[in-house]
From TrEMBL:
Family, per entry: Belongs to the major facilitator superfamily.
Organism name: Aspergillus ellipticus CBS 707.79
Superkingdom to which the source organism belongs: Eukaryota
Predominant subcellular localization, coarse grouping: membrane
Name of the protein in question: Putative MFS transporter
Localization per Swiss-Prot or TrEMBL: Membrane
């Protein structure tokens, strides 16, 4: 099944060259995984993002007035979500590994669907904040959990693209969420609920249904997949094993050494910082796009304003898949870390330089084009640059945790007193996109330099006298390891 070609070993553990696989068999396996795994995770992430961001649509439909929110109350309600999201990010990701994603992901989907449904019945800022806090707890493990889950199925060079297939649900959620909210608001009532309360109720019920379906459709890992033959299971495991330097296990036990290797890798921390900067833009768009559109088209109806938020997200969705797809084909991720920020920078410069409604609306297309691809690229980059399964789960959890610090900052980036031009919010986002470009370029240079340094090391001499366990615990510190740019 795997035709090994020129494999040298140290203590029969360190592969310097990956085995070659039957490309047709590998393509058939990958297609089968695509059909069985991707649809479910994409749909649950779509409604994860809708249930998080639909408060922006509800705001346009009268949420602030009905709950008696004044001044910065709306920003405070948004912030509560991110407090719990950040606190539970890494614990949730480790729980996903411990419980198994086949059970964890459906359970957390069911839980945040119930929270979304509960938001339809809040009466004041206190109850709204309480429900948003719970929503943050249950959504904390979703983005890193799915990224970690897909890393159990796809190879490193494939991962960014396949992550993009579900991360693209974030901009699509902005588009679809606007369309769905517009459709819901045409109803007179849903039971005893009216206006914005119908948005939370209907979307929450859909999410609950998806969570129940996911219990049936998701399976933990290739070994437990009833829809794979024994030969396909062996190939799926071998594909992943071939990329793990100095480890004999695809799925290992959680331990402190590997967990800390994932968190404190210099590439993890740098990538996490980039995701923090980027998420200020992504989450700011999610929460405030309807508000920004209202300042551009103040005379339009609420439904028309909702619909105007859709086209930029569609364009953003296209680039969310395009950049990771090209990264798969070229087997490069950092190239797109430096290509995307100039799009965002141009968009915010237009926002700051012009008051023309048409120019500003066009700027939202540029911003969406550059911003949304980082969700897939950052998580793939963190995952690709550690070795063990435990280190991958903690690396992805760290990346997403930092990203949600950016989400917390985003809730305070577009403030009421700064309307209608939002100089502070647009200036902040111009600065973060510029910083993203700089940090990504510096990381790329450092990784290339460190790989050249590692090539000069005598691996046999460096690892002499170490046990198998000690070599495995080195993870990315192993001199045989090479950073994937």
């Amino acid at each position: 099944m795997a035709k090994e070609k020129g494999i040298s070993q140290h203590d029969e553990t360190i592969c310097e060259q990956e085995p070659e696989f039957d490309r047709k068999a590998e393509s058939r396996l990958r297609l089968k995984i695509d059909l069985y795994v991707l649809p479910t995770v994409a749909l649950i992430y779509l409604f994860c993002f809708i249930d998080r961001a639909n408060i922006g649509n509800a705001k346009l439909a009268g949420l602030e007035k009905d709950l008696g929110l004044h001044g910065y109350d709306y920003n405070a309600v948004l912030s509560v979500f991110y407090v719990s999201y950040i606190l539970f990010e890494i614990p949730s990701t480790m729980a996903c590994k411990l419980i198994g994603p086949g059970w964890f992901l459906p359970a957390t989907t069911l839980a945040f669907g119930i929270c979304s449904l509960g938001t339809a019945f809040v009466q004041d800022i206190h109850s709204a904040s309480g429900v948003r806090f719970l929503l943050g707890i249950f959504e904390a493990g979703m983005l890193p959990g799915i990224a970690y889950y897909l890393s159990r199925w796809y190879r490193r060079r494939e991962l960014a693209f396949y992550l993009s297939v579900y991360v693209v649900m974030a901009p699509l959620a902005g588009a679809f969420g606007g369309l769905l909210a517009s459709a819901i608001l045409t109803l007179d009532h849903f039971g005893s609920l009216h206006t914005w309360r119908m948005i939370f109720a209907i979307e929450g019920i859909i999410t609950i249904g998806l969570g129940l379906v996911a219990f049936v459709t998701l399976t933990d890992r290739p070994e437990t997949a009833r829809w794979l033959s024994a030969e396909e299971k062996d190939l799926a495991i071998a594909r992943l094993q071939s990329e793990r330097i100095a480890t004999t296990e695809v799925l290992d036990r959680i331990d402190r050494a590997k967990t800390l290797r994932g968190i404190f890798s210099p590439v993890t921390l740098t990538t996490a910082f980039i995701f923090l900067l980027n998420n200020i833009t992504v989450q700011g768009l999610a929460f405030f796009a309807p508000t920004i559109v209202r300042t551009i088209y103040p005379a339009s109806s609420v439904v028309s304003q909702q619909l105007h938020t859709v086209p930029p997200y569609i364009v953003g969705a296209f680039f969310t898949v395009l950049f990771p797809f090209l990264s798969w084909r070229f087997d490069r991720r950092l190239l797109f870390f430096v290509v995307a920020p100039p799009l965002m920078m141009t968009g915010y410069i237009l926002f700051l330089a012009s008051t023309s409604a048409h120019v500003r609306y066009g700027a939202t297309f540029l911003i969406a084009s550059g911003a949304f691809s980082f969700g897939a690229l950052c998580n793939a980059h963190s995952s690709n640059n550690v070795v063990s399964d435990t280190a991958r789960s903690s690396a992805i959890g760290t990346t997403v945790m930092f990203g949600n610090v950016g989400g917390l900052i985003a809730t305070w980036s577009f403030l009421p007193f700064d309307a209608p031009n939002y100089h502070i919010g647009n200036g902040l986002n111009l600065a973060t996109s510029s910083m993203t470009l700089l940090v990504a370029a510096l990381m790329w240079c450092w990784m290339r330099w460190d790989n050249r340094r590692r090539e000069k090391i005598d691996v046999d001499d460096a690892l002499g006298g170490l046990s198998q366990r000690q070599i495995q615990d080195m993870d990315w510190r192993n001199p045989a390891f090479r950073w994937k740019t």
